[in-house]
Structure to design on (348 residues):
């Protein structure tokens, strides 16, 4: 086969150089997020704060510079990660996760900018009742030890109460869902005591319990146990009877029917009860710590309010939100793992 003439080869080379090159891929949402973070950084750093009757808000410049550095990092990721994701699996997974979080990466700096404008820059939300974002940095930097200790106390108290309430509610729900005799006696008590808010029993619990900690743990267990009991009972009672007939035909014992047929089939309802109980336990925890417990995030809120340290209150609320959200996320992970065998038949 004859080779291509040199003049034709040169013409093809010239044509390739004259054609426009394909632009590099760009994650446009990430680039928009970088622009939003840069705008927030410049707003915080360069726009002067409103003068107040006390010292200037600390960490204003630091927050602005940090936002600008974050914007630069986001822009770098938006420019380079799509190209890396085309050839490697790990960057592709990272890019997929970032794409899901992309709208929030744009919305978060806009919300922070609005917060900064309404407080530090325009003072439409007056100090000291409202504080700008950089004031939280000052609290976390100066009072992190007390906040961490209070968070640890709250987590220990919540864990003890939720664990006791979940186990007691689960066993009670299985019992009344399986046994009509047990349901005859327990069901009226649930209908009478269950709807009473646990916080309404705070004075009685603190009077009867040997310590404020045990009283708070009991109330948290009560708030957790009621929805777990009701949903477990509903799940066990609603199991298809044909499952039991098939198991009995194969020689299953009563114990096997309860723990290997009824309980697995009722697990979706059990986890719904756990989610409801965990959500109810948060409000009881904060109320109990505000009234009687000598440590914890609820106690910290009361302490900060007594000193009119409203910035500390906001900082504690953010810690509380992060802690509670993390617990809910952990429970979702446990549910996904426990019910993995039902993915084909269960709508999640």
């Amino acid at each position: 086969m004859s080779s291509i003439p040199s003049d034709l080869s040169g013409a093809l080379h010239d044509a390739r150089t004259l054609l426009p090159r394909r632009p590099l891929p760009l994650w446009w949402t990430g680039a928009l997020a970088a622009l939003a973070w840069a705008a927030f950084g410049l707003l915080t750093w360069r726009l002067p704060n409103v003068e107040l009757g006390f010292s200037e808000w600390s960490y204003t410049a630091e927050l602005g510079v940090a936002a600008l550095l974050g914007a630069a990092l986001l822009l770098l990721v938006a420019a380079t990660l799509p190209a890396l994701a085309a050839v490697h699996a790990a960057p592709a997974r990272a890019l997929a996760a970032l794409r899901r979080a992309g709208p929030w990466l744009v919305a978060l700096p806009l919300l922070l900018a609005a917060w900064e404008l309404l407080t530090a820059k325009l003072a439409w939300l007056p100090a000291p009742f409202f504080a700008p974002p950089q004031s939280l940095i000052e609290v976390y930097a100066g009072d992190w030890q007390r906040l961490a200790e209070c968070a640890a106390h709250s987590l220990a108290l919540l864990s003890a109460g939720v664990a006791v309430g979940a186990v007691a509610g689960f066993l009670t729900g299985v019992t009344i869902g399986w046994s009509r005799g047990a349901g005859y006696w327990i069901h009226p008590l649930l209908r009478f005591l269950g709807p009473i808010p646990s916080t309404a029993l705070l004075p009685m619990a603190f009077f009867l319990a040997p310590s404020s900690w045990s009283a708070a743990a009991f109330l948290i267990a009560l708030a957790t146990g009621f929805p777990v009991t009701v949903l477990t009972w509903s799940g066990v009672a609603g199991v298809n009877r044909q499952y039991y007939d098939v198991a009995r035909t194969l020689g299953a014992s009563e114990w096997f029917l309860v723990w290997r047929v009824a309980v697995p089939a009722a697990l979706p309802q059990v986890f719904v009860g756990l989610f409801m109980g965990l959500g109810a336990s948060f409000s009881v925890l904060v109320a109990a710590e505000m009234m009687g417990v000598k440590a914890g995030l609820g106690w910290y809120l009361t302490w900060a309010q007594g000193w009119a340290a409203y910035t500390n209150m906001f900082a504690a609320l953010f810690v509380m939100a992060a802690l509670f959200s993390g617990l809910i996320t952990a429970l979702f992970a446990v549910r996904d793992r426990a019910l993995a065998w039902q993915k084909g038949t269960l709508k999640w």
